[in-house]
Design a protein that fits this description.
Layout: H1 9-15, H2 18-24, H3 31-43, H4 55-61
Helix pairs in contact: 1-2
Length: 77
C-alpha cells in the first residue's frame, strides 16, 4: 500500500476500490469545458457537410488503375 494515507490509482484499481479513490481525489475539472471538448473530439473524424464528397463523385474521380503488390511498373523483363 502507498506510504501516505491515500490509495494510489494503481492500488485502487487492483483492489477494486476505485470508489474510495474517487472520494479521496475529488475532481476539480469544469464539466462544461470537458463536455465541449469531448463533443469536439467526437466530431473531429467526420468531414463537415461542405467537405463531404458523394459516392458518385468519388467513383467519377477514380482512375481505375491499380498495381499489384510486389510488382513494379517497369516489370517488362
Amino acid at each position: 500500500m502507498a506510504h501516505g494515507k491515500y490509495l494510489s490509482f494503481e492500488e485502487a484499481r487492483q483492489l477494486g476500490k476505485l470508489g474510495q479513490f474517487g472520494k479521496e481525489h475529488p475532481a476539480e475539472a469544469d464539466a462544461d469545458r470537458f463536455s465541449a471538448l469531448l463533443d469536439a473530439m467526437c466530431r473531429a473524424g467526420r468531414p463537415s457537410p461542405e467537405n463531404r464528397t458523394s459516392g458518385a463523385a468519388r467513383r467519377a474521380s477514380y482512375a481505375g488503375t491499380r498495381i499489384r503488390q510486389g510488382t513494379s511498373e517497369d516489370a517488362s523483363d
